[in-house]
Amino acid sequence: MSQQNTEQPLHTLLRKNPPFRADQVGSLLRPAAVKQARLQRAAGEISAEQLREIENKEIIRSVKKQKETGLNVVTDGEFRRAWWHFDFLENLDGVEAFTPESGIQFHNVQTKARGIKVTGDIDFSQHPMLEDYKFLHSIAGDAVPKMTIPSPNMLFFRGKLEKAAYQNDYKQFQHDVSKAYKKAIQAFYDAGCRYLQLDDTAWAVFLSEAGLRQIEAFGTTPDELRKLFAASINDAIKDRPDDLKVTMHICRGNFQSTWTAEGGYDAAAETIFDGLDLDGLFLEYDDSRSGGFEPLRYVKRSDLQLVLGLITSKHGELEDKDAIKRRIEEASQYVSLDQLCLSPQCGFASTEEGNLITEEQQWAKLRHVVNIAGEVWK
User: Fold this and answer.
1) Are 345 and 355 in contact (CB under 8 A)?
2) Longest Cα pair distance anywhere in the chain, in angstroms?
3) Per residue in 55-80, pLDDT tens?
4) CATH number of the domain bearing residue 336
5) CA dist list (Å): 175 to 121, 131, 170, 181, 182
6) Which of 102, 112, 244, 328 is deepest in the core (most CB within 10 A)?
7) Residue 109 domain-assigned?
8) Does any domain span residue 99?
């Protein structure tokens, strides 16, 4: 190592690997060209190949823009997806898409109707998102390409179990889901992926009274469900390659700048911060719905990175820089500053509709993350 590198602060040296001091969750606003092309494809006006060509062009443009903000990490913005979770899950073996009677209820708004059902043995064989990642990898250049997929818990949380064997034996269901995810993780690794993120809104059920009623409807208890959720993740990522970094993003819902759940991390903090074998956690912390930093006291591992989602993706106004610095300092009272990073609290478009924010504001938000991180960890 050169003399120049050895003189760098320790926290700078530690963040040559993801997650980075300035990071992002993943999804980006769909460009107008992608939205129009998807409509044309649905109407049969263009071919699947023509749609992909347009997506490729816009992803190349987006990756360039991400790098221009100063980020070391790039994603494909999830431009090829309609949903952050359903597109991946419905392409697993044994899972099918269907149209339910209604969409998912958010605060004062509802999504379009979309659902998934488990009708056969769950497995991972051929999956279209492998090619999606390979394209991102091929254009990332000197940036680190990140792949985002829903957590295995989302199949339980959003999937309708129609296969009788799974209805009668949840342990078998969880075993098969973990086995499928092991295959998926290895397949993405073989495609070149070294930074994988699991997105998970299921943890929100522990954080509010409304969520606890959902747990009761599942026919289980909070303690049992916490153990099941933790086992689902830990089993899936067990024995992963040493140079693959796996993080998880915990969210309380993000659709057209609104949300589904609220409440601090307290009720699930011990499991989340001391029970998951992850390399990092992306934590929603952009407003009072997320509670305070006190639950971070359960962090026991010095190698667990916490990415504080202090910059909101739900509106375009830039946060006061000094206020964000003060919040990072407050969090550092519970864990070392060397274990903290900064990002938006969620993506900008968890679904293809996107949040109520402009592309210009989106890029300004990401530059804001980079600028603040550069001043905090200088």
Assistant:
1) no
2) 64
3) 999 999 999 999 999 999 999 999 99
4) 3.20.20.210
5) 11, 26, 8, 10, 11
6) 328
7) no
8) no
Task: State the average pLDDT for the chain.
Answer: 91
**Nearest CA to 349 among 284, 286, 256?**
256
133-161 tens-digit pLDDT: 999 999 999 999 999 999 999 998 888 89
> Which residues constitute the domain of residue 155?
3-84+119-376
**What is the count of structural domains for the chain?**
1
Look up the pTM and report it. Answer: 0.93
The answer to whether 149 touches 129, Cβ cutoff 8 Å, is yes
Distance CA 152, CA 199 (A): 9
In a domain? residue 111: no
The owner of tokens 């269901």 is: 173
Phi and psi at residue 219, in whole multiples of 5°? 80, 30
Q: Are 272 and 307 in contact (CB under 8 A)?
A: no
Query: Is residue 304 included in any domain, yes or no?
Result: yes
Taking the C-alpha atoms of residue 323 and residue 191, their distance in angstroms, rounded to an integer, is 41
Q: What is the 3-state secondary structure (H, E, C) of the chain?
A: CCHHHHCCCHHHHHCCCCCCCECCCCCCCCCHHHHHHHHHHHCCCCCHHHHHHHHHHHHHHHHHHHHHCCCCEECCCCCCCCECCHHHHCCCEEEEEECCCCCCEECCEECCCCEEEEEEEEECCCCHHHHHHHHHHHHCCCCEECEEEECCHHHHHHEEECCHHHHHCHHHHHHHHHHHHHHHHHHHHHCCCCEEEEEECHHHHHCCHHHHHHHHHCCCCHHHHHHHHHHHHHHHHCCCCCCCEEEEEECCCCECCECCCCCCCHHHHHHHHHCCCCCEEEEECCCHHHCCCHHHHHCCCCCCEEEEEEECCCCCCCCCHHHHHHHHHHHCCCCCHHHEEEEECCCCCCECCCCCCCHHHHHHHHHHHHHHHHHHCC
Peptide bond into 19 cis (omega under 30): yes
Q: Are 349 and 256 in contact (CB under 8 A)?
A: no
